[in-house]
């Protein structure tokens, strides 16, 4: 890692740039991703079509089934498409291509064909964008054998995970939190890879393990600082990859602390936290000092107004309280 | 423009256009001043379309629209107070502050669904029309969407279904030549979206959506057909979007000449002058109408800011008909 | 309950029939559901268009986004549509209408509009129909606030749950297992309602709770019979409703037995079993005698060939083994 | 039928048709006898289409097809042994028994994807063509689907995208007049699906898919255009499905007269007679060709049944490139 600081947005742009430079088979498409269209509505892909040309970087019509399906076909034909589906809520219009095709084709063909496609998609509450532009469904894709799902929390990981996804021979979903695009951190070395399926211990501590990913990491760090004031030593695990889960890192941590809280922005019920909590209980039944706590959003669509949106999201206090419940 | 409509209709259309325009201006002001936190997908430039459509509608007719559709909602009759309270996220808003600008809903004035997902209002509009066909309630449904939406699957499925089932619905494609930052021809493989109607055995009308009289005629033809059992119509109303995709968008991807030409043809001042020239109203009468509307909006903004936010407990309500423990 | 026996297929047909008879606003559509098209590819809806007419029972074009969207619109317009999406895998092409619209519209409109639509869909492995016609994704919909999800295991429940769904003022997903269509059981009384959110204790027992739904119920009954031979007293809970979960029945049972196994046909990871397992651990941490076990399908798409399909599905032996693990 | 093709081409087409037909007959026999457990979506009656298309293709050209597409796969060249081993669920099958009839895949002969989801092969076909456009490999992609599929969103999105991007793909809609049990006009709002091509600025060809010469000409025109950079074509090939949607379906929903007329026009015996009448082959030569193909199929069936099933551990393989613990 260099001393230079960059944003996650820059890191994603760099990762795509470097992957396209390294491998001619890497192509990019999605709505408005090319420079004549501004290089993405958030400029994440700015400059890439200018550098790599109109053939390799293409803005698409509004037709997610069409262009994700084209990504599946192009991948089978030997390309490594990076396909941007602008927002997580829009993944609902192309679930078939992702779930029935990208995820299953290697298996259904007996390994003859494969879909090395990377899907990028963004979401995140907190911006008053309402019910159809801010929620999260990573649990659906984690429940889909054949898919890999990642979500970075910092620029170096965003770079390294995205490059790992692009190099991976299977379909990967790279989830991006809108609130983190501007988050700055150490710039990665060119070519830096964060291996898929490996979690990161962000902070070591012996009292309780906070297990999270994406924006949850900084939220947990803030909560951990407060908890430290009360003498609670928090260990924070940034999953980085949601599926496949890094059992070893999770279980080793909780074996040590005996306590765990899982935190994600998606609604709590039937979320990723449920899988993690069950696994911990299954493996560490007698080592646990308290039941694993789960935090997520309230069980509703995302509300528009600020006060309701705040009530929808988990709060820092809730993280602190959940940690304290395990310590009680 | 040729004269065929009476003064009442003209003034009614103009009033709606002014309401939409001044409301949009004020939204820009409030958001820029930081007094309102809300995305704004301005329809500045597209005022004629909902004005001309809605003067052909009954109050109980249904409208479905999109994130950009505040113009459609206002023209259909959503009260400005309720609208502003919603945009300000207040409990007194149309949706208690739960929906916001992308989901304005006001069944009392027939505004049934506003969606943020491109194309999805098209089958929903067909479904509302289906309910009218069942109930024989005589209603017509208008489903509004953009040019880019004509490339998504829901457009195809919705139009085909409406045609096969001969539903009383009018599909109004407001072609403002851009879908976010993508120019029409980069996303759409045909010159006129209205020609896609032929793929569904449906009449397609290509009309200048900035010409109130032509737009009125197109809407009337389609609405009458739907109401009389003649089935659906696809209207492609040509227009332009002056303020970018979303507030903050500087339209850098639109060639300057194109923007300049469109702005020179801003339908609002043109129509105003035409009304005066053709004796429908005097400059003073229109100025007074505009002032009235301005005051109405002032009052609505003030009202909205004076309202309370919903209690946080409201997150648990309206998820289901009955709260689940 | 009368003494007469009927199949689940008949029960579903009767439920729709009786609901349409009772309420003019109930309408039905889906591919091939009307009698000129055979009353459904499995004849589930046979006779209904003849009885209730072409206006109320309609075969649709192949356009799930179109006709599920039309169901959403019709429901907002005051109808109570029953919409058949032939197979669970085809729900992927209309997720947007279900998740972004049906489930969210009541909330986003502040309660002004609602979508009292019942979706029916079928799936199930064991018929060599391969990767795109047999798997299950109920966990996705359970992870979607605003949706209710049910899955009957017997004819009376199929009737009662489906009628409850149709009468419910919110969108419900009624899942049907292909293998159970011919399953026979006591016929329900006309008008029988199985309240949503209430599980059923199929068999009482004090040693271990098997928690399941759909086809899992008869599989657990068969396993319980074998376990009884070894002196193990099994309690079987048929959830009937997957979301909202009946916490009380689950927790009371496990509070009594101290042991639980969750069984479903969907793949295990990130499945419904994870939520149930976590809840049990959270609430009964100190009462549990063993960690909750979860069974589901193997982590792969559904294979075509018989031996691989068998390897994919959980086996009776696995249920027995899992129960025994909790008793060890 | 008018004569334009040489004897070689004719016999090549006829051979493929016979292969498809006898293979289909044998599948019925094996399944009915309980020796094979597999769904069968018979393409009996549609043999001309893949025969005429595939004689215009190079071995490396790509084909995408559907659950009903065993005819497309065989005509493209998938070896009968590998096919039957797959249908019998054996490890030696094209897909190790993991895919089955709805997912036949055989890249060696260009059969890249077989899907069970209506319409989804259309964008995938566009994507394969996109990979060819990138690589300049000169390949053409054929994407096959049915009449009912033309009403689903993927059709619309896939054709629009292929047109906007000018991709080397041919969309072959095999219109057998029914989608499952639903008659064409109940699902489709237009008389000719080929007319939908106009909605995408794409050439549309309506052709008798049971006429080998006409079908050959249509396929050649479209494939040549794609190969020469002229972009996509939509072909609507009119045909009929003799054996219902799936084995066991008695076609009760098809009017008897319609079925009788179609059967009277079974393209296979007609073409056979025409080949003899026009001196391309004698009855004996054709009979011997047919017997050869029959023997080939006998051998394939025997071979398939002699193969082993994959080890159950194979459930864990091919989920990802590398097994996950
Ligand atoms: C399914 C889906 N894909 C993408 C988006 C993101 N998006 C929002 S508006 C928009 C452009 C729509 O253009 P058009 O249909 O022309 O309507 P306009 O905004 O110009 O009124 C896009 C791509 C979305 N909301 N839904
Ligand atoms: C998205 C989707 N919806 C429904 C089905 C069920 N289904 C399978 S085949 C079929 C009919 C397709 O008809 P057509 O496109 O005409 O092709 P054909 O079977 O006649 O060759 C249907 C509805 C499906 N497989 N996928
Ligand atoms: Mg537009
Ligand atoms: Mg067909």
Write the layout of secondary structure elements.
The complex is a heterotetramer, with two copies of chain A (328 residues) and two copies of chain B (325 residues).
Chain A: E1 5-7, H1 8-22, E2 26-30, H2 48-56, E3 57-59, H3 64-76, E4 80-87, H4 95-102, H5 105-108, E5 118-123, H6 138-142, E6 148-150, H7 155-167, E7 172-177, E8 184-186, E9 200-203, E10 208-212, H8 216-229, E11 234-238, E12 241-243, H9 247-257, E13 260-267, H10 272-284, E14 293-297, H11 306-312, H12 316-327
Parallel strand pairs in A: 2-3, 2-4, 4-5, 5-7, 6-7, 10-11, 10-13, 13-14
Antiparallel strand pairs in A: 1-8, 6-12, 9-11
Helix pairs in contact in A: 1-7, 3-4, 8-12, 9-10
Chain B: H1 7-32, H2 48-54, E1 62-66, H3 70-76, H4 80-87, E2 111-115, H5 121-135, E3 141-146, H6 153-164, E4 169-175, E5 178-179, E6 182-183, H7 184-187, E7 204-208, H8 212-227, E8 233-238, H9 256-264, H10 267-277, H11 283-306
Parallel strand pairs in B: 1-2, 1-3, 3-4, 4-8, 7-8
Antiparallel strand pairs in B: 5-6
Helix pairs in contact in B: 1-2, 1-3, 1-10, 1-11, 2-3, 2-8, 4-11, 5-6
Bound molecules: thiamine diphosphate (2 copies) and magnesium ion (2 copies).
Report on this model:
The complex is a heterotetramer, with two copies of chain A (328 residues) and two copies of chain B (325 residues). Chain A contains twelve helices and 14 strands. Chain A is an alpha/beta fold. Chain A has a seven-stranded mixed β-sheet with strand order 3-2-4-5-7-6-12, with helices on both faces. In chain A, strands 9-11-10-13-14 form a five-stranded mixed β-sheet, sandwiched between helices. In chain A, strands 1-8 form a two-stranded antiparallel sheet. The radius of gyration of chain A is 19 Å and the shape is globular. With 325 residues, chain B is of the alpha/beta class. Chain B contains eleven helices and eight strands. Chain B has helices at residues 7-32, 48-54, 70-76, 80-87, 121-135, 153-164, 184-187, 212-227, 256-264, 267-277, 283-306, and strands at residues 62-66, 111-115, 141-146, 169-175, 178-179, 182-183, 204-208, 233-238. Chain B has a six-stranded parallel β-sheet, with helices on both faces. Chain B has a two-stranded antiparallel ribbon with strand order 5-6. In chain B, helix 1 (7-32) crosses helix 2 and helix 1 (7-32) packs antiparallel against helix 10. The longest helix of chain B is centred in the N-terminal third of the chain and has 26 residues, at 7-32. The radius of gyration of chain B is 19 Å and the shape is globular. Chain B starts with 6 loop residues before the first helix and ends in a 19-residue tail after the last helix. The model of chain B has no long low-confidence stretch (mean pLDDT 97). Classes of the chains: A alpha/beta (328), B alpha/beta (325). The B-D interface holds B 151-157, 159-160, 163-164, 186-191, 195-196, 198-202 and D 151-157, 159-160, 163-164, 186-191, 195-196, 198-202. Bound molecules: thiamine diphosphate (2 copies) and magnesium ion (2 copies). One thiamine diphosphate (TPP) sits between chains D (68, 116-118, 145-149, 176, 178-180, 241, 245) and C (31, 62, 64, 86, 90, 93).
């Amino acid at each position: 890692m260099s001393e230079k600081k960059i944003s996650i947005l820059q890191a994603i742009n760099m990762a795509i740039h470097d992957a396209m430079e390294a491998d001619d088979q890497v192509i990019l498409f999605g709505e408005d991703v090319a420079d004549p269209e501004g290089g993405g509505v958030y400029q994440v892909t700015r400059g890439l079509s200018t550098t790599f040309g109109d053939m390799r970087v293409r803005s698409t019509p509004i037709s997610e089934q069409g262009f994700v399906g084209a990504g599946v076909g192009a991948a089978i034909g030997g390309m490594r498409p990076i396909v941007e589906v602008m927002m997580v809520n829009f993944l609902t219009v192309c679930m078939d291509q992702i779930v029935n095709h990208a995820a299953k084709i290697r298996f259904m063909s007996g390994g003859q064909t494969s879909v090395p496609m990377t899907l990028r998609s963004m979401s995140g509450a907190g911006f008053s964008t309402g019910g159809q532009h801010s929620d999260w469904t990573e649990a659906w894709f984690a429940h889909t054998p054949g898919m890999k799902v990642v979500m970075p929390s910092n620029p170096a990981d965003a770079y390294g995970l995205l490059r790992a996804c692009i190099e991976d021979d299977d379909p990967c979903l790279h989830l991006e939190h809108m609130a983190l695009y501007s988050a700055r951190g150490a710039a990665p070395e060119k070519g830096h890879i964060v291996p898929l399926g490996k979690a990161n211990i962000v902070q070591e501590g012996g009292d309780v393990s906070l297990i999270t990913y994406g924006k949850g990491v900084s939220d947990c760090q803030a909560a951990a600082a407060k908890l430290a004031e009360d003498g609670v030593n928090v260990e924070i695990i940034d999953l980085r990859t949601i599926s496949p889960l890094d059992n070893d890192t999770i279980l080793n941590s909780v074996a040590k602390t005996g306590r765990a809280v899982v935190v994600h922005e998606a609604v709590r019920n039937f979320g990723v936290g449920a899988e993690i909590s069950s696994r911990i209980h299954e493996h560490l039944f007698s080592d646990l000092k308290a039941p694993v706590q789960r935090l997520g959003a309230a069980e509703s669509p995302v509300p528009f107004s600020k006060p309701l949106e705040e009530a929808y999201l988990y709060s820092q206090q809730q993280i602190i309280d959940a940690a304290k419940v395990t310590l009680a | 423009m040729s004269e065929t409509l009476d003064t009442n209709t003209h003034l009614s259309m103009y009033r709606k256009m002014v309401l939409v325009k001044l409301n949009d201006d004020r939204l820009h002001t409030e958001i820029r001043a930081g007094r309102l936190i809300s995305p704004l997908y301005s329809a500045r430039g597209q005022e004629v379309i909902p004005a001309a459509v809605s003067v052909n509608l009954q109050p109980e007719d249904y409208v479905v629209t999109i994130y950009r559709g505040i113009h459609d909602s206002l023209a259909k009759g959503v009260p400005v107070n309720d609208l502003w309270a919603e945009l300000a996220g207040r409990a007194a808003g149309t949706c208690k502050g739960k929906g916001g600008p992308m989901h304005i809903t006001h069944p009392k004035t027939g505004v049934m669904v506003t969606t943020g997902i491109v194309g999805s209002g098209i089958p929903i509009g067909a479904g509302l029309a289906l309910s009218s066909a069942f109930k024989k309630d005589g209603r017509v449904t208008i489903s509004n969407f953009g040019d880019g939406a004509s490339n998504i699957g829901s457009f195809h499925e919705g139009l085909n279904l409406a045609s096969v089932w001969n539903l009383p619905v009018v599909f109004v494609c407001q072609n403002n030549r851009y879908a976010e930052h993508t120019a029409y021809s980069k996303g759409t493989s045909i010159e006129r979206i209205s020609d896609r109607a032929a793929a569904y055995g449906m009449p397609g009308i290509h009309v200048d959506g900035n010409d109130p009289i032509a737009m009125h005629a197109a809407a009337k033809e389609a609405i009458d057909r739907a109401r009389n059992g003649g089935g659906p119509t696809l209207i492609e109303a040509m227009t332009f979007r002056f303020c970018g995709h979303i507030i903050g968008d500087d339209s850098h991807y639109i060639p300057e000449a194109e923007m300049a030409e469109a702005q020179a043809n801003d339908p609002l001042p043109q129509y105003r002058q035409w009304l005066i020239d053709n004796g429908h109203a005097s400059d003073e009468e229109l100025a007074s109408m505009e002032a009235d509307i301005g005051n109405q909006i002032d009052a609505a903004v003030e009202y909205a800011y004076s309202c309370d936010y919903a209690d946080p407990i409201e997150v648990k309500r309206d998820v289901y008909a009955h709260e689940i423990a």
